[in-house]
Amino acid sequence: MEAYTVLLVVIPLISAPLTALIANRHVAWGLSLLVGAATFVIALMLLQDVITGRVIHYELGGWKPPWGIEYVIDALNALVAVIVTAFALLSVLFGRQSVEREVHDSQLHLFYAAFQLVLLGLLGMALTGDIFNLFVFLEISSLSSYALIAMGHKRQALVASFNYLIAGTLGATFFLLGIGFLYAASGTLNMADIASRFEQYDAMALVITALLFILIGLALKAAAFPLHSWLPDAYTQAPSMVTVFLASTSTKVAVYVLIRCLYHVFPQEYWSQLLLPSFLLLSGCLGMLYGSYKAIQQDSIKRLLAYSSVAQLGYMIVGIGLNNETGLTATVVHMFNHAITKGALFMAAGMVFYRMHTTSLHQLRGAGKTMPWTTGAFVIGGLSLIGVPGTAGFISKWYLLQAALENNNYLVVASLLIASIMAIMYVWKIIEALYFDGEEKLHLHQVPSGQDIVAAMPLATLCCYLLVAACIYFGLYTDLSLDAAKTAAQSLFAGGPAR
Amino acid sequence: MTAYILGHLNYWLIIGVMMIGMFTMMSSPNLMKKLAGLSVFQTAVILFYVSVGKVEGGTAPIITDVATRYANPLPQVLMLTAIVVGVATMALGFALIIRIKRAYESIEEDEIHQQIQKEELD
Amino acid sequence: MSESLILRVVTKWLVPVILLFALYVQFHGDYSPGGGFQAGVIFSSGFLLYALVYGVDATTRVLPEAVLRIGACLGVLLYGGVGVVSLIRGGTFLNYSVLAETPVAGQHLGIILIELGVGITVACVMLLLFYTFARNIPPQ
Predict the structure, then answer these.
(1) Which residues cross the membrane (chain B) (predicted)?
(2) ipTM > 0.90, yes or no
(3) Which of C37, C129, C136 lies at the smallest CB-CB distance from B91?
């Protein structure tokens, strides 16, 4: 099994240059699909292998850690790898039609090559046990996602991408600076090695500086409040397929890295005496209130969902900040559940955009009658976003609530409830516009004459409903998601993977 | 105190360079200058690493018979990677600026912002 | 483009020297400071100098953009390919020791191939970047 580990990174590494080389859009799509499918199968096999608590170590180049780079796979990053690869596969299937309209023909093969590079970077970030290697993968995924976002069809996409580039590079550079301080204090880059010799460091000033820089860098990448400003524009302007993929994976991976750093690089006993947990709680609570508040005000569905992402990331940050096992379980399971929920919703938004050339709610009044399936996905996805019992969103919020009650932290409980009520408001805003608002004929925008305005998207609808079904399935049967999250949280609290 | 300041002179200079980069990036409305600021900021981090890897009295980390102390090669190798990343970032940033200039006829942030707001009102 | 005779002649003399130095840095990289990245940059700077003096069009006739695109991809494939071969031969990814009969020979072969891949990609990408930006300058 160990030998398959590295294939997760190698397959996209080989396939991306091939895609760019062959320069045929059908081949490019086929290769991306193949990469998505192959990595997904491998990730599932890995997850099955490590869900029992086993840890896989893979030494790259045959160099023994801590000198060489090693990949360490436990339940946590296997789950992250499954999320990333599953969404790569689904978004490639989903994007077949919409990408061809949104991206220029001559760029299609480069688009798919860049997409595979994002996948490569995200998987590398998830698997690696070397902190500098993590930075390199972080930059690979970020640079390619800037390029992907810039391929959006409106000229605003360029500005969104540029702002993301500035914010993202700033975050990555902070992260790099943090690694530098950590290296100066510890003399090693292997995460397990840094953690295992933590007591012996005498320059604690370096360590705390490192912690702060790494934290800020990752918070920028994870779009934690108040460092989220790049996210709404980037998600709104990117091509639909990119939005689906990035919204469901990239911020999740950043949150994963945050967890990894906080538990496997810096010991939990160290940072929990600092003010850090309170800061995380504050950032998370404000994030969910602010994100929900802004979401209510939006008119564009994509932008509304993007602000809702800021809010949902707040939930994950709160889970870490609560600093108990239930909270961490909630964060990990919410990473999974929010990925499927947001994936489904952004897919539905993408289909609306493909058919109507607009995502503006006031132009979509009454669309529920023209597109019953697509808008149906909004309803179920929206329920999961709110956290109605029976949907995936409920499970994670329930655990988060329990974790907050365990700590007797009623402020967090209150903001959770308020944010949920606000979630009802913004989901209702979509549903009201789609079903109950006005009988008037659809006011269509920029539809080229002679084009079928409600063009069928069978493949995309199928993908979207797969995710919608997953929203309900993982709300009722929590074996897979919750078990993996619990194993992960337990091993994190037990002090990291055994060497 | 003076010994402390002088002894850490390289770090003071690096902090200075870093702040110059940050300030340019934050304050300038010109996209090109923003990118330049970002580049300066990244360079400061590179200098920081190389500075950390310096060993007093050490030579370049190549094994020879004469030398006994060597500088730490690892930070230098890491920075080679960081430089590559920096080049890629700059190239992507320039490419975006060129396309922004073509799309908006401007690379001043406030002018672009005005155009975006006008677009959203329509 | 420059009309200066001195520049033109000096460039003609310098370019081969720069390219030769790049090859030295490339293939001596496993014994002395150097390696693929540095060599790639030096190699591309030779062509850059040529382009600055003789014009981008003249350079694209020598090294067309299509060739560079292929080169950039092939370099990455060479790098990944070496890793895959070592996987197939029973080692971990990029473990050069299994590439030849003895581990030492394998390490030599591996690092030279890897650095070659890096060098090709870097040289091609650097020139591609230059072409891409130079195309936006209106001809004088």
Answers:
(1) 6-23, 77-98
(2) yes
(3) C129
